[in-house]
Amino acid sequence: MAKMFRDGMTPKEIYKRGEHDGELERVEGLTDILFQCKQTGLGMASIIQESNTHLVFKIIDGTSYQNDSSESRCFYMAGYLAGTLKSIGKPSSLRVQEVSEYRGHDCVFVASW
């Protein structure tokens, strides 16, 4: 992911790359998304809040990007979550953004539609 910034990709392009990768995952529900985050090394994901219009995810200990810049991993992770959520039927208007970071590698993302 840090390579994406070094290659001159913008935050929007990094988000789109993550979204594309997320859409390619074979997931059927929220449990699958949480499992795939762990399997791909993006971190241990949990849902800390859920409603009809949003989800709040907490991601801890992302091993695949521990040496990447905070910006590149956050944009990619937000896009990845958006892609996986869209692949299980959430609206195409869905957007994901990071709302807080704890201890460097623990982040909270809000998906809203």
Task: Lay out the secondary structure.
Elements: H1 2-6, H2 11-24, H3 30-39, E1 44-50, E2 54-60, H4 70-87, E3 95-102, E4 106-112
Antiparallel strand pairs: 1-2, 2-4, 3-4
Give a verbal description of the structure.
The protein has a 4-stranded antiparallel beta sheet with strand order 1-2-4-3, with helices on one face. Helix 2 packs parallel to helix 4 (70-87). Strand 3 and strand 4 (106-112) form a beta hairpin. It is 42% helix and 26% strand. By secondary structure, the chain is α+β, with helices and mostly antiparallel strands. It has one domain: Trafficking protein particle complex subunit 3 (Muramoyl-pentapeptide Carboxypeptidase, domain 2), CATH 3.30.1380.20. It has 4 helices and 4 strands, in the order H-H-H-E-E-H-E-E.
Integer-rounded radius of gyration:
13 Å
Shape: globular
Distance between the termini: 26 Å
**What are the secondary-structure elements, in order, as H or E?**
HHHEEHEE
Main beta sheet: 4 strands, antiparallel
State the low-pLDDT regions, or none. none
Provide the descriptors you would attach to this structure in a database record.
113 residues; four-stranded antiparallel beta sheet
Short description:
The chain has four helices and four strands, in the order αααββαββ.
